[in-house]
Amino acid sequence: MSISAVSSGGPSPGAAGPEPVVEMRGVDVVRGTAHLLRGIGWSVLPDQRWVVLGPNGAGKTTLLQLAGAHMHPTRGEVRLLGETMGAVDVFELRPRIGLTSAALAQRIQPGERTGDVVLSAGYAVVGRGRERYDIDDLTRAAALMHQWGVQAVAHRSFGTLSEGERKRVQIARALMTDPELLLLDEPGAGLDLGGREDLVARLAALAGSPSAPAQVLVTHHVEEIPPGYTHALLLREGAVVASGPLAQVLNGEALSQTFGLPLTLERPGGRYTARRR
Ligand SMILES: Nc1ncnc2c1ncn2[C@@H]1O[C@H](COP(=O)(O)OP(=O)(O)OP(=O)(O)O)[C@@H](O)[C@H]1O
């Protein structure tokens, strides 16, 4: 099997510009009496890199589940890679979207060989079974493991890796299918300072690559926003506080409103930092 030949989702003929990879209109997600998301409107273009910021329980993971075709909205329209959710086979859509999350990481058996965790992504399975891989797959997996600094641990079992190595293995796996959209749910969670800085630098390099997919990064921490990210969506209690180009929407006032406490935001050396006012 070759899993590297995936269309790049370019502009449709006659269209004024590139088609959004994510488009949400009037989206609500309701569970019982709980409104997880309300009235979400959001559009992500192929060359954009978005950070989604918000406190615990704001609805960030729910938003990423929708964008990853792992959930349907209760109301409203979600279009992913030009397809409308509800009118498309999600099993055809999901390989075109790379997703990393704590929930997916928990499905990886600690005894799985790390190289197989990356390689098996094309079959949407965790770990190697009876699948057959061709030389292109093996070459791509090796290149991605090199790019994410985990080639040296390819033969180790996943359970023996450090948290930083695990996070980078998951991103390499998410990129294995050459996705048109990469969704990263709190990739910096649980990392020490060195691990975080290494991850931010690698994500900044990916953000700067013109051939890289559209990217959406969920985090609680402005310090984790990689240089090169272009847009921000700020969420609070399931609703959008602000959304748009990073330089326009990310400021102390919007951040204070999002997190519900008075904050100042600074950007020394191209990196953001926030503290209580
Ligand atoms: N099935 C469900 N039924 C009721 N409430 C739910 C359900 N799933 C999630 N929630 C609630 O919806 C809210 C949003 O959850 P979500 O995981 O999207 O938030 P989050 O912003 O990712 O939070 P965190 O930063 O803590 O990971 C939370 O209050 C959560 O408890």
3D architecture notes:
The protein is an alpha/beta fold. It has a domain at 22-102 and 180-276: P-loop containing nucleotide triphosphate hydrolases (Rossmann fold, 3-Layer(aba) Sandwich), CATH 3.40.50.300. 27% of the residues lie in helices and 25% in strands. It has nine helices and twelve strands. The chain has helices at 60-67, 90-93, 102-106, 114-119, 135-147, 163-175, 193-207, 246-249, 252-259, and strands at 22-31, 34-44, 49-53, 75-80, 83-84, 97-100, 181-185, 214-219, 231-236, 239-245, 263-266, 273-276. Mean pLDDT is 90; it is low at 1-14. The structure holds adenosine-5'-triphosphate. Residues 31-32, 34, 36, 54, 56-62, 220 line the site of adenosine-5'-triphosphate.
Write the layout of secondary structure elements.
Blueprint: E1 22-31, E2 34-44, E3 49-53, H1 60-67, E4 75-80, E5 83-84, H2 90-93, E6 97-100, H3 102-106, H4 114-119, H5 135-147, H6 163-175, E7 181-185, H7 193-207, E8 214-219, E9 231-236, E10 239-245, H8 246-249, H9 252-259, E11 263-266, E12 273-276
Parallel strand pairs: 3-8, 3-9, 6-7, 7-8
Antiparallel strand pairs: 1-2, 1-4, 4-5, 9-10, 11-12
Helix pairs in contact: 5-6
Bound molecules: adenosine-5'-triphosphate (ATP).
